[in-house]
Amino acid sequence: MGVHILSTGSSVPNFSVENHYFEDMIETSDHWISTRTGIKKRHLAPSSHSLTQLAAEASNNALSAANIKPADIDLIILATSTPDDLFGSASQLQAEIGATSSLAFDITAACSGFIVALVTAAQFVQTGSYDNILVVGADTMSRWINWSDRSTCILFGDGAGAVVVGKSAKNSILGFKLCTDGQLNSHLQLMNVPLEAQQFGVTEIPQGHYNSITMNGKEVYKFAVFQVPSVIKECLNNVNISIDEVDWFILHQANTRILEAIANRLSIPFSKMITNLEHYGNTSAASIPLALDEANRSDKIQPGQIIVLAGFGAGLTWGAIVLKW
Ligand code: UT7
């Protein structure tokens, strides 16, 4: 059974913050942020704009682009690390868009989440279990930032991206490779840190609270620049496609310098890398589907072209998918 990406959609909050705003908050500069990361502004969700709402907006855009009714969706996979509900927000999303016949569940794989979710969806279509699947990558990282930590607070933005995948004679997903190295987990975390505890005799049962994001930027940078080109090469090799045959690379938008270094290692022109960091910063699980949607809606990517998607981030996790658009 072939798996085809029928449509894309995305959404970001209206409110945005430019780099210079941070100059009054922390010791930084627009120059440092733009030259070290490529980011110029990021969109941030106010308290009235939930993760579920952002995901629903992106989903509705993808559903109307595919001309598919919510009731025709069999499965919703929501990739997020920042659900409104720790039990998962896919059910809230299902209710919000009225996809009443679908199973809905979350996947947590940080910035690789959308890649993992798309591969998961493809398995369900290929086995004939489901016909139409809504795959969403959405994150509100702003809710989990320590705004006085200059090494992380300038990086992240909020957003959501979605695709509808369906069974088809045409096959879009030619190959994939997903990886995890849990030994490197401490380099990027959002840890549960008990602040209070209930005493049962001598035993303390901790209350759940989460810390803000902590990141060893240098280590994550080195990991991305080393592992991402290697997983892309392996993935392309497995499906007998040469690097020169790839029309576009849509990678997780973490840092323009990371994308430049990866392009260098792959010996490809940077013009083949689709980037939108300048406008959105790092939107975690949303970054790949957001960039994919923009490239699709602007007709940058064309039917028949070969596209490589690749994600990397906390876990540490990374992975690539080779698509025929
Ligand atoms: O999506 C998940 C995956 N995440 C990533 O891929 C992020 C990967 N890492 C990065 O993108 C980069 O490591 C950062 C953008 C986070 C940092 O850039 P860097 O070039 O690696 O900077 P650095 O950490 O080596 O810091 C260089 C200097 C330090 O000062 P000293 O020690 O040289 O005096 C930092 O304290 O820059 C300082 N610095 C800042 N200065 C101004 C760190 N953050 C800032 C800041 N403004 N916002």
TrEMBL record:
CDD domains: KAS_III. Its EC number is 2.3.1.180. It is an enzyme of class 2 (transferase). Its main location: cytoplasm. The active site is at C111, H252, N282. It comes from the Eukaryota. The chain crosses the membrane at residues 306-323. Residues 238-325 form the Beta-ketoacyl-[acyl-carrier-protein] synthase III C-terminal domain. Gene3D superfamilies: 3.40.47.10. This is Beta-ketoacyl-[acyl-carrier-protein] synthase III. It comes from Wildemania schizophylla. The gene is fabH.
